[in-house]
Specification:
five-stranded antiparallel sheet; Immunoglobulin-like; three-stranded antiparallel sheet; mainly beta
Length: about 120
C-alpha cells in the first residue's frame, strides 16, 4: 500500500504447461494483477518496475511505461485488472517490484508489489 494514497495490489500466478518446454528449460507463467484504489482521488499508472529472480538466483530487471501498453487511470474506489507473463529457465522463481503513480494533484508515489512466487505447484515445498 502506498503511504500517500490507499492503493493496494494483489497478484496471482499460474504455470502455463501448454507453452512450457521443461526439456529446453523453458517455463512459462502468467500473473494476474488487481490494483484497487481506495483513496479519495483517481490515480494514474506512469511506470512499472519488476525484479524477477529464477530458481538459480539469476535476476532480471524490467522497467517500463505504464502497463499493457497504456498509462491507465484508476478512479477512486475503482480497480484495474490485467494479465501478463514471464518465461523462466527454472520451474520456480519470484517477482517483486513497484508501480510509479500520480494522483490528481500531481504528486508521484510508488506502490510496492511485495515478493510473490511463480512456480509449478509440484515444485513448492
Amino acid at each position: 500500500m502506498s503511504k500517500l494514497t490507499r492503493v493496494f495490489v494483489q497478484v496471482q500466478s499460474l504455470y502455463v504447461k501448454s507453452q512450457s518446454y521443461p526439456e529446453k528449460s523453458r517455463y512459462v507463467f502468467t500473473y494476474m494483477i488487481m490494483i484497487r484504489n481506495m483513496s479519495k482521488s483517481s490515480v494514474q499508472i506512469l511506470k512499472r518496475y519488476w525484479l524477477i529472480t529464477d530458481g538459480n538466483g539469476r535476476e532480471i530487471e524490467i522497467h517500463g511505461e505504464g502497463v499493457s501498453g497504456t498509462k491507465p487511470y484508476i478512479a477512486s474506489g475503482g480497480e484495474l485488472h490485467y494479465t501478463s507473463g514471464i518465461v523462466l529457465e527454472t520451474p520456480i522463481g519470484t517477482m517483486q517490484g513497484y508501480y510509479v503513480m500520480v494522483n490528481e494533484i500531481g504528486d508521484e508515489f510508488n506502490v510496492e508489489v511485495p515478493v510473490f512466487r511463480v512456480a509449478i505447484k509440484t515444485h513448492i515445498h
